[in-house]
Amino acid sequence: MSDFNTNEMQQETNIQGIDQVMKRSQSAFLAYRNMKGALRATFLEAIATGIEAIGPALIQQAMEETNLPEARLAGERGRTCNQLRQFAALIREGSWVEARIDTAIPDRAPLPKPDIRKMMAPLGPVVVFGASKFPLAYSTAGVDTASALAAGCTVVLKAHPAHPRTSELVADAIAAAARQTGMPPDTFIHIHAPSFEAGKALVQHPVTKAVGFTGSFSGGKALYDYATQRAEPIPVFAEMGSINPVFILPGALKARSEKVAEQYAASITQSVGQFCTNPGLLVSLQSPELDVFRKQLGEKLAAIAPGTMLHPGIASNFVRNRAKALSQQQVSLVAESKEAPKENQGVSSLASVPASEFINNPVLAEEVFGPYSLLVAASGIQELEAALDKIPGQLTATIIGEDDELATYVGFIQKVANKVGRIIINGVPTGVEVCPAMHHGGPFPATTDSRFTSVGTDAIKRFVRPVSYQNFPDVLLPDELKAGNPMNIWRMVNSEWKKA
Length: 500
Fold this sequence. Notes:
The chain is α/β, with parallel strands linked by helices.
């Protein structure tokens, strides 16, 4: 951990400073990577305890910087600390390293078999970009930082300029936890570097081995491109947004359109629509029931007052992108908040368009980040499938349908599943449970690598790589691979893998 103070943290780190920071992180990694899993677990738990100990001051500071309500931020703090403790439990238990022991067979014919042992090892220094829309859960001590530290990687955190003081409070808690638990100096380094040049320098520094990012498509794609331009390309795990399509089947509209409208009015406007899982696209078959649903949802959204968005940049982008979407051919505004918006507020909005126009206009599949959703009406199943074909990779998709009709759409549902990282039946995409079974990722452009999640303990897999050790004497092996280690490892015995 670096011996920084608040005044030092408030200064912007220049390009020369970034070089020094990354070299310090690399030096720390050489020591931190060898810390026992139990010690790293204690460190993560101490971070969680330290964040909780800040108390109301943290929530108040975040409220002032982000316009988010107290209840939302309190929940986000709980999620942040829960994540840290889940990763602590994971690395304390130990099986996440996927240790494999394939013992030697010296007398095997025609060639002897060597002793080979394999496990996951940390990549190296990780650069994490704080997220604007989640000042706690995806920022300073969020899931990217927590999973990288759990894996044995050091972290350089670039604070988001939208909530710098909130970030400092959390960084101070991480610093204190590092000192308390005896972690190597510079295990975690917190910097303020808002310029694009600084972000590029962090990604392209030779010792950087991976990047974590949650934000816009333009920002994530730029970081990804910087990484591929390096002499040694590195992985960028970027979550870049999603319109999270919702397919509403005819039976559901006949049986419960009012209930679905109420459910989705709340989901579209939750936290002023500022979730990566916000349902920005609703798709159904044209029918009298859909006309009723359109009216019901529009009335409910019109009754929801405008809300202040996270910061002026997000608010201005919402206004611009909403206007762009509404200006497209055959797009009609169904309803918007009756109350006029104030400065930096987002207006609850529902628009509608025929599927024939949606299919031919890629602009309509672009994300409008905020309380906006587009209702697409298809003339039949073929047009419904054609609309699906025009939707790029997504974090989530939802199917709303009655039990007796879901089976008749099984082929369509399978096609939907090919587009997403998480598919939901009769629910809403907002609200991402933090648990081992959760996959929060999806095909490009939702993320840069659909194989990995940024929620749940499997997020640790982003920051490790497999290493095999051949013919190593026991004394030189990592503890997880040594003979007689009681951890949950596997051994090859008589050509079959068996738990030790």
